[in-house]
């Protein structure tokens, strides 16, 4: 008798390993790293006919332990094998009232069970409800599985999207803040102050001492008019000095002293750095000749080349973040001032001028910089986090959270992207909740369900 039982156990093991259509049904609970037999009236009944290794395809006629010290699991008569090719009639779920048709393998293997069970990895088989067969697009997950997979969802809302456009640029001077020092008369430079290229000068700081015959004659006429008390001629004499380039402070000094100076001290017209100095002591200066060039660096330009495809998204007034390569961790903020009205025919780019403050003169002329312009409109659009989009190339899908653990894939059309969000032009509406994490798992679950439903329908038609 004992030998017959051993033969029976061996035959059953070979059948199970050959995969000849038999499905072993067992349940095992893992507690503290040890496998223990779980007995439920609705799972199995009858005497234990053999024992199996919980970690492998080994069997025994009597209780024993495997090499890892785990107890072999008893297999009862009603749990042994099943010969059904189709799932049994639907059974009700006592907790929700929904009727369960069968249980399927959680890893997507073509294996079903009429009763709850676990796979070889200890994962619960997934119930397939009767009402789910009517809606192949809906996937239902238990609360425990949602927590394990980290499913998260967010509502679709209207928000302002800013699309960052990145380009390379260089720092340039603002010509409106550049002053050229030259004479309006033929003169001679008697001496030059202690200033050179690169030095910073303040407005009104002496630059050089100048003598000019025309300037001296105009100053003498102005003094004579003042001494004669001919008020009608004073304004004309003063205007001649102004036209020769004399500043108000120097004219007021002549009026107070009533003396004609031999040389005139020429002052800096504005504050800034001297980027060019041609004046030399004793030189003759022709009218209009550039003697000094002074640039105010408190505000600079950044000229960026924007690709042609992004030109329509750029408009004056948009915020731009500048990161000079000399200061990668120090962003500078500016505004788009002008989009130049022509393209570079060779590079197919449009030039954009950005104006920004230059605290401490940190940005130097011709520095290279990385430019990021916050483009996009000011109107709010329907948007969802980019993590919710499953982009398959030709189509984009989101997973709708319909509540109570039910999820539905929905194809959508997307527009602009920016700030981690994507504009939704069609497919879902405001207030719909979309899955933002673990959505790929749910999408795979949906595809698997559709495939199983197709197989089920094919089997029913036979």
Topology:
Layout: H1 2-18, E1 28-31, E2 34-37, E3 48-52, E4 59-60, E5 73-76, E6 91-92, E7 99-104, E8 112-113, E9 126-129, E10 139-140, H2 143-149, E11 152-155, E12 157-159, E13 163-173, E14 178-181, E15 187-192, E16 200-201, E17 206-211, H3 213-228, H4 231-243, H5 248-257, E18 264-267, E19 272-277, E20 284-285, E21 292-295, E22 299-307, E23 319-324, E24 332-344, E25 349-357, E26 368-375, E27 381-385, E28 390-391, E29 396-403, E30 406-418, E31 421-426, E32 433-437, H6 439-460
Antiparallel strand pairs: 1-2, 3-4, 3-5, 6-7, 7-8, 7-9, 10-30, 11-32, 12-27, 13-22, 13-26, 14-21, 15-17, 15-20, 16-19, 17-18, 19-21, 22-25, 23-24, 23-26, 24-25, 27-31, 28-29, 29-30, 30-31
Helix pairs in contact: 3-4
Strand content: 35-45%
Instruction: Based on Cα principal axes, name the global outline.
Output: rod-shaped
CATH topology of the largest domain: OB fold (Dihydrolipoamide Acetyltransferase, E2P)
**Unreliably modeled segments:** 1-43, 81-88
Total number of helices: 6
Rg estimate, integer Å = 44 Å
**Beginning-to-end CA distance, first to last residue:** 43 Å
CATH architecture of the largest domain: Beta Barrel
Tally of individual domains: 4
Helix content: 10-25%
Task: Just give the CATH class of the largest domain.
Answer: Mainly Beta
How is the quaternary structure best described?
Answer: single chain
CATH superfamily of the largest domain: RNA polymerase II/Efflux pump adaptor protein, barrel-sandwich hybrid domain
Q: How many DSSP-defined strands? A: 32
Largest sheet, if any? 7 strands, antiparallel
Mean pLDDT: 79
The helix/strand class is alpha+beta
Domain CusB-like three alpha-helical bundle: 214-260
Domain CzcB-like C-terminal circularly permuted SH3-like: 383-442
Domain CusB-like barrel-sandwich hybrid: 179-294
InterPro entries: 3HB_CusB, Beta-barrel_RND_2, BSH_CusB, CzcB_C, MFP_Cation_Efflux, RND_pump_MFP
């Amino acid at each position: 008798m004992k030998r017959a039982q051993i033969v029976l156990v061996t035959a059953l093991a070979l059948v199970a390993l050959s995969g000849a259509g038999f499905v072993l049904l067992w349940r095992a609970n893992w507690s503290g790293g040890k496998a223990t037999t779980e007995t439920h009236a609705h799972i199995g009944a009858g005497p234990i006919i053999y024992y199996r290794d919980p970690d492998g395809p080994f069997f025994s006629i009597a209780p024993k332990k495997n090499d890892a010290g785990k107890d072999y699991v008893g297999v009862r008569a009603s749990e042994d094998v099943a010969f059904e090719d189709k799932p049994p009639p639907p059974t009700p779920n006592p907790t929700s009232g929904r009727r369960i048709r069968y249980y399927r393998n959680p890893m997507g293997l073509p294996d079903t069970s009429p009763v709850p069970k676990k796979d070889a990895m200890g994962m619960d088989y997934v119930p397939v409800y009767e009402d789910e067969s009517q809606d192949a697009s809906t996937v239902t997950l238990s609360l425990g599985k949602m927590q394990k997979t980290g499913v998260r969802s967010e509502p679709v809302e209207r928000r302002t999207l800013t699309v960052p456009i990145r380009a390379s640029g260089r720092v340039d001077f603002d010509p409106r803040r550049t002053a050229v020092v030259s004479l309006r008369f033929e003169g001679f430079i008697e001496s030059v102050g202690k200033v050179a290229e690169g030095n910073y000068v303040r407005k009104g700081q002496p630059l050089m001492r100048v003598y000019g015959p025309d300037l001296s004659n105009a100053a003498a006429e102005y003094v004579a008019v003042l001494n004669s008390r001919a008020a009608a001629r004073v304004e004309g004499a003063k205007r001649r000095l102004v036209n020769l380039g004399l500043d108000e402070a120097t004219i007021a000094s002549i009026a107070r002293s009533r003396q004609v100076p031999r040389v005139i001290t020429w002052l800096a017209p504005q504050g800034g750095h001297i980027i060019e100095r041609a004046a030399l002591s004793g030189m003759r200066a022709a009218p209009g000749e550039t003697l000094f060039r002074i640039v105010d660096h408190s505000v600079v330009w950044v000229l960026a080349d924007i690709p042609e495809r992004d030109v329509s998204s750029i408009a004056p007034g948009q915020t731009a973040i500048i990161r000079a390569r000399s200061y990668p961790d120090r962003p500078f903020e500016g505004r788009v001032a002008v989009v130049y009205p022509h393209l570079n025919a060779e590079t197919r780019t449009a030039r954009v001028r950005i104006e920004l403050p230059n605290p401490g003169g940190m940005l130097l002329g011709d520095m290279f910089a990385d430019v990021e312009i916050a483009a996009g409109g000011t109107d709010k659009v329907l948007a969802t986090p980019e993590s919710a989009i499953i982009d398959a190339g030709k189509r984009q899908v989101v997973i709708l959270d319909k509540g109570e653990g039910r999820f539905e894939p929905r194809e959508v059309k997307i527009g602009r992207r920016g700030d981690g969000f994507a504009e939704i032009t069609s497919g879902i509406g405001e207030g719909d909740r979309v899955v933002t994490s673990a959505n790929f798992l749910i999408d795979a679950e949906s595809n698997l369900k559709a495939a199983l439903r197709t197989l089920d329908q094919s089997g029913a038609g036979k």
